[in-house]
């Protein structure tokens, strides 16, 4: 069995190379979260130094780029013999350029970014070098897909003034474009990277510390103990463990890699086929990015885009996330009931009492985090760092992992390693946002899309969902969200969709791209652990996560599910109909509800579930009015008919058994 306390990040791209340079890289990695702590508590101000958020972003970007070049080879097939002279040169250039820009940032801003004389040429060269370094680090960490996308937007900036129709925009001069993308708060140093520095670093550090210092064992043991005793217990344990891990780690692929090592073999042993075991883990881990209290980097960026506290984003995401997991649980339960999948054996599941007795101190930091965020109104990063102190204290009490300077440095290093992709991706997303801003494309395209859809909000939602999924194929969730929030979320808002719902809508489909074939990173990661065919695992993920693709359409037209603009009665009604709709829809997919469903009953269950899931307030659908009542009636008919039919069939089987010679001789059989 693998180390259950592994940190919640994937190391598929980042690997340590032999030689003296990894020592430098380790220092850089540890320095990234350490600087985040220093900046969160505004420690430079105590020594009389005021630092702009853009300057902090530059420092973090420089350290992230340098560490990436030292740790990640230029080619995946390259033998890890240590960084080449070119890698070291790129790392040194990253630090030199970003440090120079950091210390001269105020002067550069005061001069309109460009400056005069020799400073002009240095600024342009620094900007060009920074952009090229970002693209090269992005290629090493994520591959070519996002690099090509950024290059397309950069090319567009040069010819925006000759593009047709809604794609026409302003085409700035090359020198100003480079300086703007490099230095403006709407470019590389904009919202996405600034939120990483101010908030995401703190939560990544909290998650890594919790798992590395012994808390990861608690989550997995509790899930196995609570859910393992039920039919399909291995899969239900996987869902519970992955939801808890994911709510802290905020990364679908990392979540699969962390919990799947244990849960996937248990599911295979319990009766699930390899592709199904991988699919369950992939879907459950993907949902963790949508589950409060910690939803990943994109949610923190969303709060900044919407200019609302993060707690509002978390509260709005709560009910949709619970519906997501309820639907997954129901589908797993019905599948297990239909195929007779057994609970976990007693020796395979720990006792709840023993788990809590051993690990209960690790619950205290999480309780404190929720209390400080939702009841005391602390800033997210301050609440995370306060909880971090209690994580270290809990580790000292539990004493499962020795708390030493070496182990604490390892936590900082692992956190820095987790942040590399996020730093480079958000910097690249800043390039795209900068192009959209300086050319005016984000406004003109959004208006054009809204006008093209006319009053058909459903068409606009479908186009947005499909676009987010397509862009999300092979791209990290954070990048997809930033792009969609800039391009398409404004169009949804202009069409009348609630702003919070619009941003959550694009986030959901960006996340769901992780389980949507043909390119589904979470499913592929799970398939490799399950030793199952990649595409079959992706298709099974699509089946187990089918209801998740409906959930965003629910809250896009029913703000009550986001706890916004609605009474508690409306919230309760929306939640009840959604839950019953999910149950019927899951029964239709699995073909089971108390007993096997015939094809007509299965189709009726699907129709009833869909009608219940359609919000009554969805004015863009002609069938919305009265859909709940019709759905309830259809669901009741399916329930009663199949229960009566199943009862009759069980009676017939008992009669046949009683009359058979085998039944008489072996009544216990």
Radius of gyration: 26 Å
The class by helix and strand makeup works out as mainly alpha
Characterize the overall form: globular
Helical content (DSSP H or I, runs of 4+): over 70%
Along the chain, the helix and strand elements come as HHHHHHHHHHHHHHHHHHHHHHHHHHHHHH
Straight-line distance between termini: 38 Å
Range of strand content: under 5%
Strand count, sense and closure of the main sheet?
Answer: none
Q: How do the strands and helices of this protein lay out in sequence?
A:
Blueprint: H1 21-40, H2 53-71, H3 85-103, H4 105-110, H5 118-142, H6 144-159, H7 174-183, H8 191-212, H9 215-227, H10 233-249, H11 252-270, H12 274-287, H13 297-306, H14 310-339, H15 352-359, H16 363-374, H17 380-398, H18 405-439, H19 441-453, H20 457-472, H21 477-487, H22 489-494, H23 499-512, H24 521-530, H25 534-544, H26 551-557, H27 568-590, H28 599-613, H29 627-659, H30 661-665
Helix pairs in contact: 1-2, 1-8, 1-18, 2-3, 2-8, 2-18, 3-5, 5-6, 5-7, 5-18, 6-18, 7-18, 8-13, 8-17, 8-18, 9-10, 9-15, 10-11, 10-12, 10-14, 11-12, 11-24, 12-14, 12-24, 12-25, 13-14, 13-21, 13-23, 14-27, 16-17, 18-21, 20-21, 20-23, 21-23, 23-26, 24-25, 27-28, 27-29, 28-29
Descriptive overview:
With 669 residues, the protein is mostly helical. Helix 8 runs parallel beside helix 17 (380-398). It has a domain at 566-669. The chain contains 30 helices and no strands. The radius of gyration is 26 Å and the shape is globular.
């Amino acid at each position: 069995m693998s180390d259950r306390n592994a940190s919640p990040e994937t190391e598929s791209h980042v690997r340590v190379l032999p030689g003296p340079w990894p020592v430098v890289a380790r220092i850089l990695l540890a320095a990234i979260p350490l600087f985040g702590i220093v900046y969160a508590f505004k420690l430079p101000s105590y020594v009389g130094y005021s630092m702009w958020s853009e300057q902090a972003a530059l420092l973090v970007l420089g350290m992230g780029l340098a560490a990436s070049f030292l740790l990640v080879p230029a080619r995946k097939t390259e033998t890890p013999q240590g960084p080449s002279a070119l890698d070291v040169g790129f790392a040194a250039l990253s630090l030199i350029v970003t440090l120079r820009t950091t210390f001269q940032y105020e002067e550069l801003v005061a001069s309109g970014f460009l400056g005069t004389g020799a400073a002009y040429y240095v600024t342009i060269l620094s900007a060009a070098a920074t952009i090229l370094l970002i693209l090269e680090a992005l290629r090493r960490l994520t591959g070519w897909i996002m690099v090509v996308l950024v290059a397309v937007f950069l090319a567009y900036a040069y010819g925006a003034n000759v593009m047709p129709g809604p794609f026409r925009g302003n085409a700035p001069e090359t020198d100003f474009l480079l300086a703007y993308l490099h230095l403006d708060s709407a470019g590389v140093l904009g919202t996405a990277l600034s939120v990483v520095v101010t908030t995401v670093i703190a939560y990544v550090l909290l998650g890594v510390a919790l798992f590395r210092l012994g808390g990861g064992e608690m989550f997995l043991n509790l899930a196995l103990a609570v859910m393992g005793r039920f039919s399909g217990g291995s899969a239900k344990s996987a869902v519970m463990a992955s939801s808890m891990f994911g709510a802290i780690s905020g990364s679908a692929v990392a979540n699969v890699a962390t919990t799947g090592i244990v849960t996937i073999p248990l599911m295979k042993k319990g009766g699930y086929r390899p592709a199904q075991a991988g699919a369950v883990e992939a879907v459950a881990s993907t949902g963790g990015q949508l589950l409060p209290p910690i939803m990943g980097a994109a949610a923190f960026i969303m709060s900044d885009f919407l200019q609302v506290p993060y707690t509002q984003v978390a509260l709005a995401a709560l009910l949709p996330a619970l519906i997501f997991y309820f639907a997954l649980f129901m589908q797993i339960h019905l599948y297990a009931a239909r195929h007779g999948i057994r609970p976990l054996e007693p020796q395979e599941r720990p006792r709840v009492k023993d788990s809590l007795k051993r690990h209960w101190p690790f619950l205290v930091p999480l309780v404190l985090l929720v209390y400080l965020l939702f009841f005391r109104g602390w800033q997210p990063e301050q609440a995370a760092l306060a909880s971090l102190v209690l994580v270290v204290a809990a580790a000292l009490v539990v004493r499962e992992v020795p708390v030493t300077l070496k182990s604490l440095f390892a936590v900082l290093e692992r956190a820095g390693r987790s942040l590399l992709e996020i730093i480079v991706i958000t910097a690249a997303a800043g390039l795209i946002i900068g192009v959209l801003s300086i050319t005016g494309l984000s406004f003109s395209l959004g208006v054009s899309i809204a006008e093209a859809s006319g009053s058909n909000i459903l068409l606009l939602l479908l186009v947005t969902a499909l676009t987010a999924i397509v862009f999300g194929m092979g791209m990290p969730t954070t990048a997809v969200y930033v792009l969609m929030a800039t391009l398409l979320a404004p169009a949804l808002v202009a069409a009348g969709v609630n702003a919070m719902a619009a941003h959550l809508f694009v986030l959901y489909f960006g996340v769901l791209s992780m389980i949507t074939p043909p390119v589904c990173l979470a499913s592929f990661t799970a398939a490799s652990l399950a030793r199952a065919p990649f595409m079959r695992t992706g298709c099974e993920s699509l089946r187990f996560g089918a209801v998740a693709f409906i959930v965003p359409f629910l809250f896009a037209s029913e703000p009550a599910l986001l706890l916004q603009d609605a009474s508690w009665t409306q919230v309760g009604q929306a939640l009840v109909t959604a839950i019953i709709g999910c149950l019927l829809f899951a029964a239709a997919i699995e073909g089971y509800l108390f007993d096997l469903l015939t094809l007509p009953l299965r189709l009726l269950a699907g129709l009833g579930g869909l009608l219940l899931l359609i919000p009554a307030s969805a004015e863009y659908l002609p069938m919305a009015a009265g859909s709940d009542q019709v759905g309830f009636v259809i669901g009741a008919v399916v329930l009663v008919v199949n229960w009566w039919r199943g009862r009759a069939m069980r009676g017939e089987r008992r009669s046949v058994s009683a009359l058979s010679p085998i039944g008489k001789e072996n009544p216990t059989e």
